[in-house]
Amino acid sequence: MDEEPSSYERVAYKNDSVYHYMKICLIFGNERKPLSAEQFKQLIISGLKELYGEVGAAFPFDVLTFDQFVLSAILRVYNNGLVKLWSALTLIGSCENESCAFRVTQVSSSVSKLILVLKSTGTSCRSL
Amino acid sequence: MVRIKYRYLLCEVCVSERSGLQMLAERPIYDALRAALGKAHGAHGAALLSVGSSVTYVNAYTGVVLLRFRKAHYRLLWSALPFVTSIWSRGQKVPCFFNCVHIGGTIRTCQKFLVRYSRQQLCRMLPHCKTEAEKQEVRRAVLSCSLNKFREEEEDNDFGEDGEETEA
Amino acid sequence: MSSHLEKCARSLLVCEKSSFMNEASRHETHVCKHSFNYKISVLIPECGVLPADIANVISHFKSYFLVRDLPVYKFLDAKFLDTVKKGGFYALSYKTRIDEDNVVALLSSGHLVLSLDKDTYQQLGLEGKPSEYKHRKDMRYVVTVDLTDKSLVPGTKRFQQVLLSLKERVPLKSDFLLTRCPPGAEEDGELQALLSQHTYEECRPTVISRSLTDIPRPSLHPSDLRGNAHSCTPVQFLEWLGSVNLNIRCNNSASSFLSTYVCPEPCATVNKVLLCTVTGFIPPEDVYALLQELRRCLAEPGFTDWVSLTVHGFADSPVSWGAAEHGFLKGGENFYNLVCFKNQDYWLHMATGSQDGCPP
């Protein structure tokens, strides 16, 4: 416990995080469909397959959290899949013949930063 | 001067029955390629194919096909080539696969390679000949192009080396 | 595979290891330079309820004011100028976006920073410099006016020029968040008096405490910042910290369809973890007071080995640390995290997104 005070050390990492995190939510045009987390992920995967095919869509991503009531989720994706995932999310337009859209609320290279959006006040994520 | 760079893929179409080669044409090959890209690389892949790509040359006798892609994304398009398993032509399905033998920066380098490649193929055909007449025929062909070889080399020296850009 | 699809914008993470006892330790400057703090979260392992001393410090955090439609030239008001010159005054325009709107911020040093789009900049006629973060053409400009400057007192030519620009050429106005942390005596009434002719509301920072039970926790070793031997790497640690904050499950199997996130190795399970978050417009002075209190609590016997203090900046603030320009691009992240150990060592992680200079 009683160690010498450590010496000063400074390390700078550039692009050290291999992941990007996205906070997204799904909105429906008319009628809301009840979705499970698995169906939600499947919807994203099918969107990826449509845009990038079987080879292009074969990269892993994680659904870290999923809220069934507001249909919002936090995704974790490798850096090299971020652009693909984001573009595929943008182009997903329907879910089981019901028009829908994904809103990307925030994107960050560290999940700590995403805390910002999770708050109870319900105002815009980018300001208070 | 700035020009758009292309890559030319020299491919052999391998079919099980030789009669299938007669069915080859630019449009069916392009369509088959687009279908394979759509499956492997989705709408993004198919969109890349529609920019600046074409089937430049088809030889319905030998099954040699020259495909032209933009240099920027030829690797992605190339990767879909093994997924072409059949070509629909004139309402018939021709099972086939593509064997890419050379990638060149210009049609000229592809043509040179094709000549060299065909000559080698002739030599390889020799041991497979069954009758004496066939052997004679192949020998004659080999000899005739060996003479051409000398002539060609002289020409090459005259023009110098140009447009020789290949990429593995 | 096309490489242009796999590129993504750069992010920076600077880690420092030092001791609070160290003479040259810069923890105070780091905390005080990060002017606009949106959210603080304190994580205390092995602790069920928030210690009374810490709760007391948090309850003494300054209130902040949300003022509606405040014209920017009001900052040049003689009374305001006096207040600003005393220091400890923070203002930031509210619900303005750094990549599309005009954003105004007032730092405690008395610098008024205006991050403007091209049209406004050209109409305004104040000298500024183009934003560092641009695509091809300069579309954004940053104007800095030093309000404590001697040439900027009512009556001088320079003052008239600035006033004319902000009052008549472009009457910039916006909702503002204001807070004041006077270095000396408490003068709470002062701000209210200044704001009396505007609609405003006084807000208190929101405090939420949560107690989590039975969660895996990575083991940390004070001397091992890079995580070579005993502990996890800084990136992994921050990821874990975020996962605790966001209630992310970390007991996934490697073959799970949904998520494969797991707590970094080596880890141990803790019975309870206390997570306290404070949201608001928090001046750095308050953050520093909280840090001092956490250090004092750590010194007490029976308290945990380490605590972590994470401070997030506003994503749309025009500055991050000091007067360094800040941009949004796709995340606008700027935050720092302090891990304090029992032996008065600390780790400091500072992270920024792509449109930000290297943290100091």
Automatic annotation (TrEMBL), chain A:
GO molecular function: ribonuclease P RNA binding
Gene3D superfamilies: Ribonuclease P, Pop5 subunit
Keyword tRNA processing on entry: yes
One family name in Pfam for this protein: RNase_P_Rpp14
Keyword Transmembrane helix: no
Annotated keywords: tRNA processing
Gene Ontology cellular component list: multimeric ribonuclease P complex; nucleolus
TM annotation in the entry: none
GO terms classed as biological process: tRNA 5'-leader removal
Protein family: Belongs to the eukaryotic/archaeal RNase P protein component 2 family.
Record's protein name: Uncharacterized protein
Source species taxonomy: Eukaryota, Metazoa, Chordata, Craniata, Vertebrata
From TrEMBL, chain B:
A Gene Ontology term for the protein's cellular component: ribonuclease P complex
Organism in which the protein naturally occurs: Electrophorus electricus (Electric eel)
Protein family per UniProt: Belongs to the eukaryotic/archaeal RNase P protein component 2 family.
One GO biological process term: rRNA processing
Gene field: POP5
Pfam families: RNase_P_Rpp14 (PF01900)
Location(s) in or outside the cell: Nucleus, Nucleolus
Gene Ontology MF term list: ribonuclease P RNA binding
SUPFAM superfamilies: Rnp2-like
Record's keyword terms, sorted: Nucleus, rRNA processing, tRNA processing
Top-level taxon of the source organism: Eukaryota
Record-given protein name: Ribonuclease P/MRP protein subunit POP5
Function: Component of ribonuclease P, a protein complex that generates mature tRNA molecules by cleaving their 5'-ends.
TrEMBL record, chain C:
Pfam families: Ribonuc_P_40 (PF08584)
One Gene Ontology CC term in the entry: multimeric ribonuclease P complex
Recorded name of the encoding gene: RPP40
Organism: Electrophorus electricus (Electric eel)
One GO term of the biological process aspect: endonucleolytic cleavage in ITS1 to separate SSU-rRNA from 5.8S rRNA and LSU-rRNA from tricistronic rRNA transcript (SSU-rRNA, 5.8S rRNA, LSU-rRNA)
Name used for this protein in its record: Uncharacterized protein
A molecular function (GO) term: ribonuclease P activity
